Amino acid sequence: MPKPPSRTNKATSAAKSDSKPPVNSANEDISVEENLATATITVTAIEIPELTEEEQRDRLHLERRVERAFFEAGKALAELRDRRLYRSSHRTFEEYCRDRFGHSRRQSYLLMDAAVIFDNLEQKCDRSDHILPTNEWQVRPLSKLDPDIQPEAWEQAVESANGKVPSHRIVKDVVQRIMERTQVPNTYQIGEVCQILAKDNPELRGKAGCWGIVNHVGEFSCTVKTWDGEYTVGLQHLKSFNYLPAECEQMRQICDRIRRLRKNESLEEAARAVLKHLGEVKRPYLTAFEGELLNFIEKKYLLQG
Questions:
Q1: 65 and 162 belong to one structural domain
Q2: d(Cα 79, Cα 100) in Å, to the nearest integer?
Q3: What residue numbers bound the domain in which 205 lies?
Q4: Residue 116, Cβ neighbours under 10 Å: how many?
Q5: Does residue 260 form part of some domain?
Q6: Model confidence, pTM
Q7: pLDDT per residue over 274-299, tens digit each?
Q8: CA 202, 206, 208, 213 torsion: positive or negative?
Q9: 266 with 230, same domain?
Q10: Which segments carry the region annotation Disordered (predicted)?
């Protein structure tokens, strides 16, 4: 019976042909290190040309445009609102800003407020280097101060930032120190008619410019009664109309009449809309026609004024 072919010789010969002298890894590492130590690295120097006078002017101009971007946006929004240029497509300015720019009501008004502050700083700051805000977030704390004090606060913040544009935190700290230094006693009186200044307080959204009656006086705040509720408001968010006592009493009576009518569950939507208008007027009095409307609603629902 024939034997199967042997594969031993083939495997052996293959192993021999593939075999190589052993490599000394230590010697190889030494050789690489020597090569690296003696290698020559060529560095090509690139000369960066200085800016020409025209380029320097262009750079400064473009930097100013970037810095003033939020200011220009706020100014444009204010003009759109004041001239009612949105009226052909939208019922209210807030709806227009939301649809056209994706802004919330708060965002649009913050930009407009910031533009007013920026303009004030640009006109009144004495610093020769004219360090000005570059975004709305930096100037927002300044809205708590009177316009006459804002430049002083901004210059202090710039100094704290070592001559650079200060951060929101630095400006806020400076504003807090100034407010603590200039804190005055609460001089409001119960029954006084005040205007609500919403500013950057989201809890007062929709109440900007509305009137209210002070019914509690605290150390740093007042509780104000309005046509639709009561609000605890910081002193920086109130402004007195300086009405005579008799005029304050007249407005208190109007406020109470509106609040009493609103409790009537059978009140129609049209009547509620009128009461809402009367409660949100941006002045502490009613016109003769508005007074007649209030009287009519009271007679309709059998209430006495």
A1: yes
A2: 15
A3: 193-240
A4: 17
A5: yes
A6: 0.47
A7: 999 998 887 778 899 999 999 999 99
A8: negative
A9: no
A10: 1-30
